Amino acid sequence: MRVNGAFIEVDCFQKNKGDNMVCGDTFVSHKFKEEGRVISVMSDGLGSGIKASVLSTMTSTMLLNFAMMNEDIVAAASTILKTLPRDEVRKISYSTFCMCDIDCFGNTRIAEYETPAYYLFREGKFVDVPKKRIPVERDDMPNTALWLSEFPMEKEDRLIFFSDGVSQSGMGRRNMPFGWENGAREFIRECVTRNPSVSATELARRIVTEAEKNDGYCLKDDTSCCVIYMRKPRNLLVCTGPPFDEKNDANLTKLVMEFPGRKIICGGTTANIVSRETGRKITLDIDDMDISGNDLPPSSRMEGIDLITEGILTLSKVERILSEEDTDNHNRPDGPAEKIIRMLYDSDKITFLVGTRINIAHQDPTLPVELEIRRNVVKKIKYLLETKWLKDVDITYI
Amino acid sequence: MGKIELKICMGTMCYVMGGAELRAAVDSLPREERERINVSYAPCLGNCNDGGEPPYVQVNGRTIARVSSSNLIQILKEELHNAL
Ligand code: FES
């Protein structure tokens, strides 16, 4: 999602308490492509385990649904807050939440209810945003209120939300008797100073991993961290297939070479065209073939191109990996399809440049494997990238 | 003793039609023979458009269609013999 030329990267990383099977915190986010708006909600269910998970899932998805129906976030949050069940023993509500709505101009509204205060990190410093207290009437819980912040996000800003699993990690230890709240600030500052372009994904992962370390590698609570990062978009071009008309070979090469971002070519013929037009040599990385479990032709290299792979078999495998439940499994052998997956993951805006010349031989029913039609595979990949990883994807046919 | 240039096509058509196994076939040659073969790979040798007879290889620049592991070994042995 882009705002004034910047891209809003949203990601969340979670780990469960102890060896629990489910997480009692829930994070949901939705981007409205047409409006350029992003809504993200994090909710922490009381306690842990299934009950907490059900409560936080209900809270967060209902909030998101309200907001998606164009309900103002304060109205949405107040409605939920009025109806949240209360724990009779502890006299507190069954879940807490934090909801963030960013519009296409970067105008940001955040409604918080009992979650640890979020951080806004701007130009190396934490910014204190004034918050407005909005009372919500509840007879059984006096003094119930939301905290609302409103401010414009600027380029390179980061918003960091977390559940109390992060802020209370390490609590009771001699070096952090009251938990990690201040330590976390220092930790974030250090991470960003050391790597100013650290992605939302990576920062969230590091924060949760550090919290786990504070708890001696056995978390005392479900631990989630969500980071929203307003940054320069990382562009990726995936060029696959020769152009319909050979006269466009030069044009295709120009589009590839002048693309402002990283470049992948999928397909031998396509790679040959670019090699011929630029006079640059292609070298195959035959070591790729030695990777166990790799069932694809090896990748190759050419000056100016970040990765070259075979076409349809590799793209079909990329599609297969993306449609798997556990796409983020980092333990796969590092073959050509996995390399593409990693590059897709690390990009915000992905452009597929699809050549439409068809090799009829690919459709021969006597082939030992079924070769899919390039266009269809690319369309499926686009859908998966948009829905699974919230990427901004375009397809151009040539 | 002359060396032999072998180029194996790694394009889609050749790969699925058996090209994937050719590398192992070459590696199975006795060491003194294997050492006399320079193996390189191509992303696509350009013969597969709309059919052809994949898999393709090039031996000393000569394109050979419909190669199997066994006939590749035979061709290489002949070429090695000729180059002696
Ligand atoms: S795939 Fe081998 S010649 Fe094209």
Description:
The complex is a heterodimer of chains A (398) and B (84). With 398 residues, chain A is of the alpha+beta class. Chain A folds into two domains: 2-231, 4-Layer Sandwich (Phosphatase 2c, domain 1), CATH 3.60.40.10; 235-397, no CATH class. Chain A is built from ten helices and 21 strands. Chain A has helices at residues 49-68, 73-83, 164-167, 181-194, 200-214, 249-257, 268-278, 312-323, 336-345, 374-388; strands spanning 2-3, 6-15, 25-32, 37-45, 86-87, 92-93, 95-102, 107-113, 119-122, 125-127, 132-135, 145-152, 158-162, 223-231, 235-240, 262-266, 283-284, 300-302, 305-309, 349-354, 392-397. In chain A, the strands form four sheets. In chain A, strands 17-18-19-16-15-20-21 form a seven-stranded mixed beta sheet, with helices on both faces. Chain A has a six-stranded antiparallel beta sheet with strand order 1-2-14-13-9-10. A six-stranded antiparallel beta sheet of chain A has the order 3-4-7-8-12-11, with helices on one face. In chain A, α4 (181-194) packs across α5 (200-214). The mean pLDDT of chain A is 90. By secondary structure, chain B is an alpha+beta fold. Chain B has a single domain (4-82), classed as Glutaredoxin (3-Layer(aba) Sandwich). Chain B is 35% helix and 21% strand. In chain B, a hairpin with a 2-residue loop joins β3 (57-59) and β4. The termini of chain B are close together. The interface between A and B is medium-sized, with 26 and 21 residues. FE2/S2 (inorganic) cluster binds at residues 9, 11-14, 44-48, 54, 56 of chain B.
